[in-house]
Amino acid sequence: MEAVVTKGNNEAELSDGLRTFGAVLKVLREEANLTQEEFAVRVQYSVPYIAKIEQGKRFPPSDLLTRAEEPLGPVAIKVLTGAAKSLTRRPGLAHRFREWAGIEEDAVSLCAYECRAIPGLLQPESYMRAVFNGQLPPPDEEQVERNVAARLDRQQIFSARQNTAFTFVIEQCVLERRLGGGEVTKQVIDHLLAVGARRNVEIQIMPLIQEDHAGIDGLMYLAETPAHQWLGYTEGQRSSNLISAPKDVSVLLQCYGKLRSQALDCRATVELLEDMRGAL
User: Fold this and answer.
1) Are 50 and 39 contacting, i.e. CB atoms less than 8 angstroms apart?
2) Is there a single domain that holds both residue 221 and residue 173?
3) What does the alpha-carbon distance between residue 186 and residue 274 come to, in Å, rounded to a whole number?
4) Cβ(50)–Cβ(36) under 8 Å?
5) What is the CATH number of the domain that holds 174?
6) Strands 220-224 and 230-236
7) Which residue from 95, 128, 194, 273 puts its CA 20 to 30 A from 175's CA?
8) What is the pTM of this model?
9) At what angle do helices 36-43 and 47-54 cross, to 10 degrees?
10) Domain carrying residue 16
11) 71-128 pLDDT per residue, tens
């Protein structure tokens, strides 16, 4: 899962727009004599999230302008609104994933069901490289390095958000595929066991044979915001969806709850992973 940045014109325009918006936000914040920490408190977002918006690494949330009006003032908001127009010209897959990455960073709960690949937050570097090197059209070496660095950066969330509850349901077939070869699969299993040992992370494997299965419609990601609103994210071939309608998110939550009940529990998952590791 997770959109991968490519070198198309859409992405180039969006990257330039993100950097411009971030630079403008930083100038306006400094003009208001606010540090990043002070501004983050006023707009109710985390300091790392604001820092990444200013660096052009994260897509600003839709309500940032509303929240920023009080600390920055109406004139500053008009300037920011102008800068934001460059972010909405050509919204593509990477655009939507940047929105999700921002939601993910501030979430108090994160849930994932994956049937295609190991979730990006759980991938060791060797698996990332296998994923990126297998893409079409083939990315150049510089792009692979950028994508790997970005994904490793996202994984810092486990250390930065120790009060966030993470749950993952992963299809066993994803591991049985042995993407990248046996050695990479060993590293994946070792990494899953290590991350799954964290007190705020639960990883469950969905067994190969499961006659009652709620995941037929494909992968799903769910996040609970600090305001306790649930949002969803899904992906398909060259497409993605950020889901906020309560009735639609409710369906995803019901499906995810069912999936967790059908998957192996955490202890049985550890036993299966250890057996698979020993068989490699």
Assistant:
1) yes
2) yes
3) 10
4) yes
5) 3.30.870
6) antiparallel
7) 95
8) 0.76
9) 110
10) 9-87
11) 999 999 999 998 887 675 444 445 567 788 888 988 999 999 999 999 999 999 999 9
